[in-house]
Amino acid sequence: MAKRYGLVTSQWQYQVRFDVRDTAVAESLRRKFRDPALRPLFDILTAHGAAPKCQFDAFAEYVAAAEENGVKSYPLYRWTKATIEDPTKKEKYLKSFTLYVDDQEVYEREIADALEADLQSVARSGIINQISKFDSNPANNPQPPERSRE
Predict the structure, then answer these.
(1) Cβ atoms of residues 100 and 51 within 8 Å
(2) For the chain, what are the domain ranges?
(3) Alpha-carbon distance 11 to 142, whole Å?
(4) Measured between alpha carbons, how far is 137 from 89 in angstroms, rounded to an integer?
(5) Is pTM, for the whole model, over 0.70?
């Protein structure tokens, strides 16, 4: 069961992402394989009601949906497709994960802070290379180049 938080609604929502050290760890996470070496990570995620989503897979799903439904309704189609077709970027995004909490892509800061803090022990073990926390304020998030939005 997920931890319960005394939520205070703020203007912005948050999201926690992390990058793993190698492709074997990434593949275990993508396949939801409960490798014993990843137990500390899965225990933390379970405690928070969190699930990892590989960023490459999310990008590929976006591209597939755009191609199925018509790319005009998907403003980041060209940028996303170019990203997943670039071998260097593919390698990077296969090791990058976004955390959904209770099936939500963004959540209150208190939840993100607690999740980020608990993940520090896994980062110290070397499984996770980097933990990042983002907010939903567009001013704090880089936007793709205009030409990629066509």
Answers:
(1) yes
(2) 14-137
(3) 19
(4) 25
(5) yes
